[in-house]
Design brief:
By secondary structure, the protein is of the alpha/beta class. 41% of the residues lie in helices and 17% in strands. It has 15 helices and 16 strands.
Length: 389
């Protein structure tokens, strides 16, 4: 009998913090049990850069992201379908969330044309003409066999006037309805695994509170298995991101998981957990690791700095990850200085361990009723000390 017999996503809130909107919960998919709040490593092209799947399992990552746009272009969703779906193709036995491809398409600028039917664009790989729509995005994600599928949305640019943001969110709402219809049509013909994915809607509206509320109402009327807050961390002030999250997250259906897309720093994670968010993703821990920036309990450090040439301490003296248990700052700096690939791998393992362990500690503090004091201590320690010294 399978450890995870759930064909559909289920979500249970296990503990609500008494002083903030923070909550601890549990998601079940067909492939894994996910304790929330959760941070999801980003595996754009079917890999979390510089890491193997075994490394992710050792870190106890329960869910990773895949990128619909990139997998659609290369190797192609039909190829992945023929190879048994994305789980089998990349040899990942746990849960996968795929984005809709919308953010990447809208990032192409002059290479794309948006119309009601969808988005026509030229591939960044070879310039070939391509087309994505709500229906095509659902078909691609269905072929990939994702556990969590994201609606195809129009990512509102920043800055945007209120009219631009309103037009964008209205397009997103129409596309959300089309995504829902196509998703429901496809789920009646599931993949050979017999496991059905779940569909999340995406709230838009830029930094305009009334537009965000309008988007929320329209999404809830359509009905989804989970809800995401999109279009943040795209250039707005951090205070604006926090304000919109604080406004929208608690108004989303209490029995559904809440996902803040593309956020963020360790400070952002704990602050947005306090505002009611359950799920996060961001490229920051791995992208920054590949540039020599390491996250620690006492802030960030640039391991390439010459001051670490003879530093025998681990990256973070409070960290129990495999890297910190074995390797010194001096050695990892030496790897960077020699251009060794291992430097990126070790820094990526540590950064993801730091993020995942932080989320587990946050969750435990909610369960124990100690979140507010944990939040204060965590942030004071992270902000007040400098690992560069």
């Amino acid at each position: 009998m399978s450890l995870f017999p759930h064909k559909h996503l289920t979500f249970t809130v296990e503990k609500q913090d008494g002083q903030t909107k923070a909550r601890a919960g549990r998601i079940h998919t067909a492939h894994s049990e996910i304790e929330t709040p959760v941070f999801m490593p980003v595996g754009t092209a079917g890999t979390v850069k510089a890491l193997t799947q075994e490394m992710l399992e050792q870190l106890d990552a329960r869910i990773i992201l895949g990128n619909t746009y990139h997998l659609f272009l290369r190797p192609g969703h039909e190829t992945i379908r023929q190879l048994g779906g994305l789980h089998q193709f990349i040899s990942w036995p746990r849960s996968i969330l795929t984005d809709s491809g919308g953010f990447q398409v809208f990032s192409l600028g002059d290479l794309r044309k948006i119309r009601e039917e969808g988005v026509e664009f030229r591939s960044h790989l070879d310039g070939s003409k391509q087309f994505l729509s709500p229906e095509v995005s659902m078909q691609v994600q269905h072929a990939l066999g994702s556990d969590i599928v994201m609606c195809f949305d129009e990512c509102t640019p920043f800055p945007a006037t209120e009219k631009q943001a309103k037009d964008s969110l209205e397009m997103t709402s129409r596309w959300a309805k089309r995504s829902r219809i196509e998703f429901d049509r496809l789920k009646d013909s599931p993949l050979s695994t017999g496991k059905s994915p779940s569909l999340f809607g995406i709230n838009q509206g830029s930094v305009y509170p009334e537009l965000r509320r309008q988007s929320l109402e329209q999404l809830v009327e359509i009905g989804f298995e989970g809800y995401a807050i999109g279009g943040l961390s795209v250039g707005e002030e951090k205070s604006q991101m926090y304000d919109i999250t604080e406004l929208i997250a608690p108004q989303l259906p209490v029995e559904k998981p809440r996902y803040l897309m593309g956020v963020g720093t360790p400070e952002d994670l704990i602050e947005c957990v306090a505002r009611g968010v359950d799920m996060f993703d961001c490229v920051m821990p791995t992208r920054n690791a590949r540039n020599g920036q390491v996250f620690t309990s006492r802030g960030k450090l640039n391991i390439r700095n010459a001051k670490f040439i003879a530093d025998q301490r681990p990256l973070d003296e409070d960290c129990e990850c495999a890297v910190c248990r074995r390797y010194s700052r001096a050695y990892i700096r030496h790897l960077w200085n020699c251009g060794e690939i291992l430097a990126s791998t070790l820094c990526s393992i540590h950064n993801l361990a730091f993020y995942l362990d932080s989320m587990r500690s946050i969750r435990q503090s909610i369960v124990l009723g100690e979140f507010s004091s944990f939040r204060s201590n965590y942030l004071n320690k992270y902000r007040s000390s400098s690992s560069e010294e």
